[in-house]
Write a structure and sequence with these properties.
The structure holds 2 protein chains of 2 kinds. Chain A is α+β, with helices and mostly antiparallel strands. Chain A has 4 helices and 7 strands; from the N terminus they run βααββββββαα. Chain B is an alpha+beta fold. The longest helix of chain B is centred in the last third of the chain and has 29 residues. The chains are: A alpha+beta, B alpha+beta. Chains A and B meet through β1, α1, α2, β7 and α4 of A and α2, α3 and α6 of B.
């Protein structure tokens, strides 16, 4: 994968508890800080309103993809689409995946967000041959982030 | 011009503009800093002038190239600033996830 954000963390809680925190819409809403209109259903739209201070004007709009208990929960959305007067619906959404694995002291959770459409891997070597005009470092930073080091 | 600036501030437009092999190849040709005409940019490719023009307009809309009219020709130049904006955007999305996952951790471990 070329353009992704990836986060891995170990949670000191059993897989079942983490699964519920992710997939029960009220539990999800508590930690994500969003008031969701209805339970998550694969293939269905999920709507709601953000509760984070300063972002109360932001609507939550996602489409639930997979709910494979207890190991995979995924949805597509427009990441942090926070401008109230911008219509994000025409943009290609990103895919967010939560993967759960039992760990010795709880649950290993891996979160990925992909589809930023940044820099396709097969085009990179020749497209980003660096020059010394000062933008190479920025390009490297973008590449580092889209490769998941961010 | 204000439309171009608005689009330049939109990370999705930048990513979408970058997410195409033909456009990346055009940026590559412009990456040494020299301003090039559409004729030069389409030379040695299978792309028509119309196709090159269309892709250049997308890049220009995302603020990744600028154009200047010299006589009868438009010359196109690479403009790197949006790459910084794209980076900042990914940083902010990444930071938002850190915040959210911190709250998840508190939620399930309490």
């Amino acid at each position: 994968m070329s353009n992704r954000i990836e986060k891995t963390l170990t949670l000191k809680a059993p897989v079942e508890k983490v699964w519920r925190a992710l997939t029960d819409h009220e539990a999800f809403g508590q930690w994500f800080r969003v008031k969701l209109d209805r339970p998550f259903e694969p293939g269905e739209k999920s709507t709601g309103r953000m509760l984070i201070k300063g972002f109360e004007h932001v609507r939550w709009n996602a489409t639930i993809k997979q709910m494979e208990e207890p190991r995979l929960f995924s949805f597509t959305w427009h990441p942090y689409a926070i401008e109230a007067d911008v219509d994000y619906s025409a943009e290609t959404p990103t895919l967010v995946e939560f993967r759960l694995e039992p760990a010795e002291d709880g649950t290993k959770l891996t979160v990925t967000e992909t589809g930023f459409d940044a820099l396709p891997a097969h085009r990179r070597p020749d497209a980003f041959r660096m020059n010394d005009r000062g933008w190479g470092a920025q390009m490297e930073n973008v590449r580092a982030y889209v490769e998941g080091e961010g | 011009m204000s439309k171009a600036r608005d689009e330049a501030a939109d990370p999705a437009a930048i990513f979408a503009a970058l997410g195409d092999g033909t456009r990346l190849s055009l940026l590559e040709k412009l990456s040494d800093g020299e301003a090039l005409s559409i004729a030069k940019l389409s030379a040695g490719t299978r792309l028509t002038r119309q196709a090159v023009t269309k892709h250049l307009h997308v890049l220009e809309g995302a603020g990744l190239v600028t154009s200047a009219r010299i006589g009868r020709e438009s010359l196109y130049s690479f403009a790197p600033a949006p790459l910084g904006a794209a980076r900042t955007y990914l940083e902010s999305v990444s930071a938002q996830w850190d915040d959210a996952l911190g709250r998840l951790k508190d939620f399930v471990e309490r």
